[in-house]
Design goal:
By secondary structure, the chain is an alpha+beta fold. Helix content is 28%, strand content 43%. The chain has one domain: Roll (Nuclear Transport Factor 2, Chain: A). It has a 6-stranded mixed sheet with strand order 2-1-6-5-4-3. This is Ketosteroid isomerase-like protein.
């Protein structure tokens, strides 16, 4: 599931990515102490206001640790906007799936201030 989700983001496949989530799924990206976004409408809005702003997103997966119903992905992520701003950062992404195999909870740990600084410097 983790590879499918990352692949959908890399390919800009909004509907494919959203359809990987359970109707009551929670998304925390980045994890920052807030309760996160719950439900596919909120997750679709996250795509439209965050992921869609990038011309390119690439995951260089370093390792995936899997267990029944969940996985943690360690990856280097590269992003680029249509205006040429770019950033590279490391992330730990925790995927949890329900009994149907849909993503029930996604928690992405990465440093938002560092990424914003990189984007504003290019």
């Amino acid at each position: 599931m983790a590879r499918r989700a990352m692949g959908a983001v890399e390919q800009g496949s909004r509907e494919e990515w959203i359809n990987l989530f359970a109707a009551d799924a929670t998304l925390e990206d980045p994890v920052d102490g807030s309760p996160g976004l719950t439900g596919t409408d909120a997750i679709a809005n996250f795509w439209d206001t965050s992921i869609a702003m990038f011309e390119a997103v690439q995951f260089d997966v370093r390792r995936i640790h899997e267990a029944p119903g969940e996985a943690v992905v360690l990856a280097e992520i590269s992003i680029r906007t249509p205006g040429g701003e770019s950033a590279q950062y490391d992330a730990a992404i925790h995927y949890r799936v329900d009994d149907s195999g849909d993503i029930s909870h996604l928690r992405a740990f990465w440093d938002l201030p560092d990424v914003m600084q990189q984007l504003s410097a290019t």
